[in-house]
Write a structure and sequence with these properties.
Layout: H1 6-15, H2 20-177
C-alpha cells in the first residue's frame, strides 16, 4: 500500500490502529520526557543562578584575596623591618655591652693601678714621715742640748758677770780707800 504522494502517507497513518495501552504508554513517556525536560530546564535555570552566585562569590573571594595579598605584603614588610630593627638594636646592644666591658676592665685596671700607686705613695710618705720623725727627734735632742748649753753659758756668764761686778766693786772699793 505504499503511495507515492504525501497525502497517502497521512491517510495510511490515520488508518493505523494503535492499541490504547500503547497510546497510554506513549502519553506517559511523553509526559515523563516533558517533566524531565521541564525539570532539566528548571535545573539549568537553577544551575545558571547558582553559577551566577558562585561567579559573584568568586569575584568577592578574589577581591578579598587581593586585599589579603596586599595586607600580607604590608605585614611581611613590617615584620622584615621589625626584624631588621631588632637585629640592629641587638647589634647596638652587643656593641654597648662590649664598650661597657672594656670600660669596666679599664676602670678595674685603673683602680688596681691607683691602689698600687696609692700604696707606693703611702709607703714613700710613711718612710719620709719616719725619717722626718727621726730628724725631728734628733733636732729636738740638738735643741735640748743647745738650750742646755745656752743655759749653762748664761749661767756661766751670769757667774762671771757677778764675779766681774764683785771684782769691779773691790777695785772701786780699793781705789776709794786709797
Amino acid at each position: 500500500m505504499p503511495h507515492d504522494d504525501g497525502n497517502g502517507f497521512v491517510e495510511d497513518t490515520y488508518r493505523v490502529d494503535l492499541p490504547a495501552r500503547f497510546m497510554a504508554r506513549l502519553a506517559q513517556q511523553y509526559t515523563g520526557e516533558e517533566a524531565r525536560e521541564s525539570k532539566s530546564i528548571s535545573q539549568e535555570d537553577n544551575l545558571r543562578r547558582i553559577n551566577g552566585q558562585l561567579s559573584e562569590h568568586i569575584r568577592s573571594v578574589e577581591s578579598s584575596l587581593n586585599i589579603l595579598k596586599v595586607e600580607n605584603t604590608d605585614l611581611t614588610t613590617e615584620i622584615i623591618n621589625s626584624k631588621m630593627h631588632v637585629a640592629s638594636t641587638e647589634d647596638e646592644k652587643g656593641h654597648l655591652r662590649h664598650q661597657l666591658n672594656q670600660i669596666k676592665q679599664e676602670f678595674e685596671q685603673y683602680q688596681k693601678n691607683m691602689s698600687v700607686a696609692y700604696e707606693k705613695q703611702l709607703k714613700e710618705l710613711s718612710l719620709e714621715n719616719r725619717k722626718l720623725c727621726e730628724r725631728n727627734t734628733n733636732l729636738v735632742e740638738q735643741l735640748t742640748d743647745t738650750e742646755s748649753l745656752l743655759i749653762n753659758m748664761k749661767l756661766s756668764f751670769v757667774e762671771r758677770e757677778t764675779e766681774f761686778e764683785a771684782l769691779k766693786r773691790q777695785l772701786y772699793d780699793s781705789k776709794k780707800v786709797k
